[in-house]
Amino acid sequence: MPVGKCNTVNIAPDHQRGLDEHNCYPFMGGDFAVHVWTMWANGHTITPFICLSVQACPPASGHIRAVQCSSYNSRPFMGRLYEWEPFNEVPGDQHCELNCRAIGFRFYVRQSDRVIDGTPCGRNETSICVAGRCQSLGCDEYLGSGKMMDKCGVCGGDNTACKLVSGLFQQHSLNKVGYHKVVEIPEGATKINVTETVKSQNYLALRSRSGRSIINGNWAIDRPGKYEGVGTMFTYRRPNEITSTAGESFLADGPTNEILDVYVCTNQLVCTIEHSSVDFSVRYTIFHCVHRMSHEQAPENHCDSSTRPNSQEEPCNVQPCPAFWDIGEWSECSKKCGLGMQHRQVLCRHVYANRTLNVHASLCRHLEQPETSSTCQLKICSEWQINTEWSACSVPCGVGQRTREVQCVSNVGDVVSDDECNMKLRPSDKENCDMGPCAKSWFFTDWGNKCSAECGMGVQTRGVLCLTDHISSLPLEGCGHQRPAASQVCNNGPCENRIEWFTGPWSQCSAECGSGSQQRAVVCLMKSDEGFNVMPPYECSSLDKPPNQQSCHHKNCGAKWYHTDWSACSKTCEGGFRVREVRCLSDDTLSSEACEEQLKPREREDCNPGPCVPHIDENCRDKYFNCNVVVQARLCVYDYYKTTCCASCTRVHTKQKNLEPLHGLEE
Predict the structure, then answer these.
(1) Per-residue pLDDT for 270 more than 60?
(2) Looking at 236, 252, 285, which one is the last position of a domain?
(3) Which helix (H) or strand (E) element contains residue 592?
(4) At 475, is the secondary structure helix, strand, or coil?
(5) What GO CC terms are in its UniProt record (predicted)?
(6) Which residues are CB-neighbours of 499 under 8 A, at least 6 positions away?
(7) Peptide bond just before 13 cis, omega within 30 deg
(8) 309-327 as b/e: b if 16+ CB within 10 A
């Protein structure tokens, strides 16, 4: 880790102005005390910079994340107190959030969306959080420069200072058990990666040219981990032997300072327990040169080397070392939230010649075998939350749909992906709604302009449909059985006495939509004013016979105007009005805007323009000259005045009765 003094921190020259040395805050970041410098320009904070002091942290110093999490120990969470520890198994974009796990429990909580500046983050040992973002110290020792060592070990290089050497070892049959050489890695190599493409019972081994075993040497298998040798650090990986199908690998950044040989150990039994019977140590007799009188140790050149006794050795600790259970790391929890399962590898091993070997499980029977699986819970599962009431139904009548908003919310109230909630328990956000039966009316087009016969009697047609009626103020009822006629008789005038082919109407199309066919009758007739006479077909042989079959297609008719019957007139006399509903419909009876506006039928018209004439009764007369005063005084409600001023009272009553339907429509 590059370090420097706080007052000589590496800062780009154009940023060195305005450095405030009073804003250097120490935080315990692991092996070094981390200090964050805050840059000021015109009174505004800009990008922070970092320097690392060379003073080692005090032994009792806690990790900065642990200190921040423990500050919540005295704050109740969901009605009780917990002791908190850092939880780091979160996605990379959350490394600068303060996520803490309750000690002794299997859930974690995001206590703050930002940790204190200077808190370490990510897998890079030089990465720290600054203003909520995880930033790394470049290989040029500048924070945020982004410069990295290339594959050749050059800071900010472009990988052109070296060449890539790669290959694939594919020897399928290795008859002899033991170590088999695979490849030689030259001195100065960088970015070393040796990986088994698939899982096998073999083990990778690494030894230097000088004879030093680095990984899996001397017939013993090492645990996965980091191993130092030939000037670099090797990372040995062996995926979980129970749950993983990946092969072994070892990686190193380099450069190496010695030639390396890569081997494959082809038999697990030989590579792990062979020679285990010679499990003992050796002790030696040590001789020193001492003064005869004081017996104090003196330099060896003061004694006669020819009389020095030979060194002796004898075995010691000949009893075999007891086997023990070697416990691997727990696998990831099978569920992201709630109760899940995790597994680990447990092997019986014992120590031989300062190396650990796999042995049969029966040798560990004197010990209780640790559990290989356990329940786990990373955090409390999120829950479904209904945010809105049901919406209004999508239709005014009949069966429609209504909706509401349903979201997955975490235990701290944040909206998260639906995958984090139990989909089986998700409340419905859509359902059907029944608004009751819809009123309906007959809709029909105007009569067609063409008659089926060029002369004489023919047939004229129009379109008729039963549709929902949107005019609720008129007394319209269901369509019922009184369907308006879809055809009527037409006459284009008398025909001359002549022989012609005559055709009947086309049958219905054989297909409801798309292409189909239809037929009609074709006969030879003699047409006259008296009527028609059927003639033999040869009488019309001189004429072109019309086809009796043709193709048809229902969906190319285009949009047309449809309308209902007229409503009742608003008044019985002295001029009223009546209305009807008009719609433009496409071939599939859906609302359309393709109809010609100038051809739209009227939706309202006047009716009953005649005057209101009361029935004249010769016996109904005014017997007094001042009956107009009786009407003005509204005395016609009394039987005496109805008889005495019969004519005047009858006129007023008739006028009021004619005005009542008009008031009803206006309301």
Answers:
(1) no
(2) 285
(3) none
(4) coil
(5) extracellular matrix; extracellular region
(6) 524, 525, 526, 527, 535, 539, 540, 543
(7) no
(8) eeeeeeeeeeeeeebbebe
Token duo for residue 214? 């680095």
Q: Which two tokens stand for residue 603?
A: 């939706």
123 CB contacts (<8 Å, ≥6 apart)?
A: none
Task: Give the whole-angstrom CA distance, residue 99 versus residue 115.
Answer: 9
* Residue 181 falls inside a structural domain: yes
123 and 187 housed in the same domain: no
Residues 276 and 189 in one domain: yes
> Which own/partner pairs from 387-390 qualify as long-range (CB within 8 Å, at least 24 positions apart)?
390/431
Site of tokens 């209101």: 612
Q: How many structural domains compose the chain? A: 2
Question: Of 180, 189, 193, 271, which is closest to residue 235 (Cα–Cα)?
Answer: 193
Give the three-state DSSP class for 665.
helix
CB < 8 Å & 24+ apart, contacts of 546-549: 546/501, 546/503, 546/522, 547/522, 548/503, 548/519, 548/520, 548/521, 548/522, 549/517, 549/518, 549/519, 549/520
Q: Which of 66-75, 244-253, 434-443, 567-576 has the lowest mean pLDDT?
A: 434-443
Residue 17 located in a structural domain? no
Q: Are residues 49 and 130 in the same domain?
A: yes
- 119-123, 182-186, 229-233: least confident range: 119-123
**Residue 181 shares a structural domain with residue 272:** yes
User: The whole model's pTM is what?
Assistant: 0.32
Give the domain extent around 212.
Answer: 162-285
Mean of all residue pLDDT scores within the chain: 76
State whether 279 and 170 are in the same domain.
Answer: yes
Q: Are 203 and 265 in contact (CB under 8 A)?
A: yes
- As given in the structure block, the two tokens for residue 560 are 């047309």
Structure letter (DSSP) for residue 662: H
Q: How many CB atoms lie within 10 A of CB 35?
A: 20
Provide the 8-state DSSP code for 556: G
Same domain for 275 and 195:
yes
Cα separation of the two ends of the chain: 88
Residues 170, 270 within the same domain: yes
Here the tokens at position 487 are 């055809």
Q: Tell whether 92 and 181 lie within a shared domain.
A: no
Do the domain assignments include residue 637? no
- Reading the block at residue 35, the tokens are 């200090």
320 belongs to a structural domain: no
Q: Write the CATH number for 267.
A: 2.60.120.830
**Which region holds residue 263: left if phi is over 0, alpha if psi is between -120 and 50, else beta?**
beta
DSSP character string of 239-261 = --TTT-----EEEE----SS-EE
Structure tokens at 429: 């956000």
Final residue belonging to a domain, choices 136, 152, 170: 136
